Amino acid sequence: MIIDTADLDAKSSYKLLIGSVLPRAIAWVSSRSAQGVGNIAPVSFFTVVGRLPPVVSISLQPRSDEVTLKDTFVNIRDTGEFVVNMASIGQAHEVHRSAFEFDTEVDEFEALGLKKADSEVVSAPRIAGAPIALECVVDRIIPMPPLPDHVVWGRVERIHIRDDLYLPGGRVDVGALGVIGRLAAEYSLVDNIFTTPLPDELVERLLVTRSARLDERPSDYSPIDTADWSPSGSTTGSK
């Protein structure tokens, strides 16, 4: 099948992108409004764009109404600061819950039962317990018309790494992170590591093996088929 992207609406395009660009790292973004209200949101349109200085990017869609700007974006725009926290399997449910749309005046740290940790150079708090956190100041904001989408580049000013993860030579012990990623509208635990080449017989077996589900749902289940999913990156329905 060949799909002409000119024929797609935003929802259809989003479905194809999140089902094709896999796995996606999750930026668990914490920010604070100009009024001091804490906000947390998972963003999987996330990557590294520069090394010196280190720069990361996050792409933010509007709320599920496709019009209202998300609190995360408004906070970043108004304060020029945010923190990218990296989440591990122990925080997976809180990551998911932070995708729900809370009212602007709600401090999401309190709503989610998460503790704040002080940052060093930005006013936005870190998420306590996150194994790695990147304190960022805004480098640039790029509008993506005709939709009310925006790309934010953040210059990383401080990197917080849990002591046991920081190895001699400046390497991160990635095998000890228990990091989670995004697969379409679901999550994946990174629990295996390899270098190439792998044995041919192993590759052949893996090619015809469906990924194992950790939640005991049917193998073809997807939240995209439920009423709680929206093409905004937000989750609707009950928190």
Keywords:
Pnp Oxidase, Chain A, alpha+beta, 31% strand, three-stranded antiparallel sheet, globular, single chain, seven-stranded antiparallel sheet, 239 residues
Strand order of the largest sheet: 3-2-6-9-10-5-4
Count all strands and give the number: 14
Oligomer: single chain
Number of domains: 1
User: What level of helicity do the residues show?
Assistant: 10-25%
* SSE sequence, one letter per element: HEEEEEHEHHEEEEEEEEH
Which fold name corresponds to the CATH topology? Answer: Pnp Oxidase, Chain A
Could you tell me how far the N terminus lies from the C terminus, measured between alpha carbons in angstroms?
Answer: 38 Å
Q: Given the structure, what is the number of helices?
A: 5
Based on the structure given, which CATH architecture is correct?
Answer: Roll
Q: How much beta, percentage-wise?
A: 25-35%
At the first level of CATH, the class is Mainly Beta
What does this molecule look like?
- There is one protein chain.
- This protein is an alpha+beta fold and 239 residues long.
- The chain has a single domain, classed as Roll (Pnp Oxidase, Chain A), CATH 2.30.110.
- Helix content is 16%, strand content 31%.
- The protein contains five helices and 14 strands.
- The protein has helices at 10-20, 71-79, 92-97, 108-112, 200-207; strands at residues 24-25, 27-32, 38-43, 46-51, 54-60, 81-86, 116-117, 126-127, 132-144, 149-161, 166-167, 171-172, 180-183, 186-189.
- The strands form four sheets. A seven-stranded antiparallel sheet has the order 3-2-6-9-10-5-4.
- β11 (166-167) and β12 (171-172) form a beta hairpin.
- The protein is globular and about 55 Å long.
